[in-house]
Amino acid sequence: MPYREKATWLMLGAILVSYAVYFAVAYSGSIEGLPNLRLLAVYAAAMGLQLAILGVGHLVIRRSSGREARARPDERDRAIAHRSAARAYYVMMTGLVFTGIYLPFTQAGWEIVHAALATFILSEVVRCATVISSYRRGWRG
After folding, report:
1. pLDDT higher than 70, residue 140
2. Residue 112 contacts by C-beta under 8 Å, 6 or more apart in sequence?
3. What is the tens place of the pLDDT at every residue in 89-134?
4. What is the distance in angstroms between the CA of the first residue and the CA of the last residue of the chain?
5. List of long-range contacts for 28-36, beta carbons under 8 Å, 24+ apart
6. Which of 54, 55, 51, 45 minimizes the C-alpha distance to 24?
7. Burial group, residue 134, by CB count within 10 angstroms (0-12, 13-18, 19+)
8. pTM
């Protein structure tokens, strides 16, 4: 498995774990109005968890990959990154248009904040899934 695919699996896992914890805690009880410093602290803890997973994971992956981890991205790596970023961009723009244009008329407070956060998370999941599937299928561009 290529180094960049391993790093993308790590990123995907860290995102899913940390934000699953955040949304589970956020929706476990009643969400208070804005500002809610307890929920902000939960978000900060989820981000800390994600950074810890990524930090330790990258150290392990870099140590096991050797020279491949230090290699510069080639044309295929850049093409895969471009393709995945383009797909994620469309997902993000669609979600943010929904969040910014529709939700202010139907929801308030944390529902809008969580919809925007979920949009960013979903776009990053799409980016990671596209990178992984491109490496798995042997995409050549």
Report:
1. no
2. 99, 103, 104
3. 999 999 999 999 998 898 877 888 889 999 999 999 999 999 999 9
4. 19
5. 31/109, 31/110, 33/109, 33/110, 34/109, 34/110, 34/113, 36/110
6. 45
7. buried
8. 0.86
CB crowding 120-132: b at 16 or more within 10 Å, else e: bbbbbbbbbebbb
C-alpha 131 chain-centroid distance: 13
Task: Return the residue matching tokens 């990123």.
Answer: 11
Q: What is the total residue count of the chain?
A: 141
72 and 114 Cβ atoms separated by less than 8 Å: no
CB 18 within 8 Å of CB 50: yes
Structure tokens given for 77: 């790596």
Tell me if 84 sits within 8 A of 127, measured CB to CB. Answer: yes
Please give, one letter per residue, the 3-state secondary structure of the chain: CCHHHHHHHHHHHHHHHHHHHHHHHHCCCCCCCCCCHHHHHHHHHHHHHHHHHHHHHHHHHHHHHCHHHHCCCCHHHHHHHHHHHHHHHHHHHHHHHHHHHHHHHHCCCHHHHHHHHHHHHHHHHHHHHHHHHHHHHCCCC
pLDDT for residue 120: 95
